[in-house]
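Appendix C: a fully annotated inverse folding record. The material below is reproduced so that readers can follow the format used throughout the book. The structure is listed first as tokens, followed by the designed sequence.
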């Protein structure tokens, strides 16, 4: 349930509502942008049945949502959320490019950082705890990799993002990274989501490989409900019957989710296709669909990459691609992807 306040309502009117909601045993989360104050009511709404919130001074309307998520909903926060990773903004008018190797490697991470930075990337991304399908595949460098990643980011002046797979690693990752990635296999690992939320770092939440949009937004809700409003959604492809590509990249979810939610949406065409030759086209398509950014795997020498070699772009391809992405963003800038039916 949301309580939408009238423009120009006083802080006393707002506080009275918050107190009434809390007195009924629920929590009130206030969302405020330049033109609206909305109070999100979190908890068992049945307890508010005897409290006529509509009758409070300053209330314009009370909206009851038949959705299992609230704080992630556009109704709660009508404007696009803009989230900072280091000094880079995600969401709003910006287009963010996160790039780097699938796995941080001692011998190549500095070269990778220089290459993605020269290509125009905004964030360096590399895994040190790798969720590999087989236990015999390279599992990542672990803690030493975190330090390498941070130092490589500092070397080129880029913030860094990396995945945490385990609640026991969250604090360690938070010490070195500017944002925490939650991978597709862990989208519904609620303990991990809560631990990531507690760091107050931005959470890059990948969509589960067989999860619905609603389940994805509910996963985001776990982070938001724990008081961390810095969630960035990432579409990375779904399992399908067809093994022609690694996953089926669901680009229609981009304008859909931007309509349902205020959270930024980025797209990962690398895992979405599994093939370097398909990545540029799908990256361009993602921006045209309204994505707020891209997550693209790149490696100074893709053939030598210790993980996901087939989908890594060369620095040269990345360098040609990034200006194209910005050009497409420029064309579509201001297009109301959200909130206006039929556009
Ligand atoms: C990754 O980003 O390297 C990764 C393992 O992604 P996903 O969780 O989408 O498979
Ligand atoms: Mn990968």
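Designed amino acids, in order:
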């Amino acid at each position: 349930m949301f309580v939408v306040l009238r423009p120009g309502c006083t802080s006393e009117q707002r506080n009275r509502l918050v107190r009434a909601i809390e007195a009924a045993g629920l929590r009130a989360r206030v969302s405020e942008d330049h033109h609206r104050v909305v109070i999100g009511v979190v908890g068992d709404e049945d307890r508010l049945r005897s409290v006529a919130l509509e009758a409070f001074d300053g209330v314009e309307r009370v909206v009851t949502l038949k959705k299992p998520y609230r704080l992630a909903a556009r109704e709660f926060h009508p404007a696009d959320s803009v989230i900072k990773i280091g000094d880079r903004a995600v969401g709003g008018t910006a287009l963010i490019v996160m790039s780097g190797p699938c796995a941080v490697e001692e011998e190549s991470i500095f070269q990778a950082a220089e290459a993605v930075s020269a290509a125009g990337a905004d964030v360096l991304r590399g895994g040190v705890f790798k969720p590999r399908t087989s236990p015999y595949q390279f599992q990542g460098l672990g803690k030493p990799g975190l330090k390498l990643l941070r130092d490589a980011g500092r070397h080129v002046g880029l913030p860094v993002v990396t995945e945490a797979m385990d609640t026991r690693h969250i604090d360690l990752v938070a010490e070195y990274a500017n944002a925490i990635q939650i991978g597709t296999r862990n989208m519904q690992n609620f303990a991990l989501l809560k631990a990531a939320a507690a760091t107050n770092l931005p959470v890059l939440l990948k969509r589960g490989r067989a999860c619905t949009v609603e389940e994805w937004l509910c996963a985001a809700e776990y982070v938001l409900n724990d008081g961390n409003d810095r969630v960035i959604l990432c579409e990375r492809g779904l399992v399908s019957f067809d093994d022609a590509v690694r996953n089926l990249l669901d680009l229609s979810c981009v304008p859909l989710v931007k309509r349902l939610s205020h959270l930024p949406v980025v797209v990962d065409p690398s895992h979405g296709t599994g093939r370097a030759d398909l990545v540029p086209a799908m990256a361009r398509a993602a921006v045209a669909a309204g994505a707020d950014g891209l997550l693209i795997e790149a490696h100074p020498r893709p053939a030598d990459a210790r993980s996901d070699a087939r989908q890594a772009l060369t620095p040269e391809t990345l360098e040609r691609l990034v200006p194209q992405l910005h050009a497409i963003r420029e064309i579509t800038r201001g297009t109301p992807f959200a909130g206006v039916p039929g556009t």
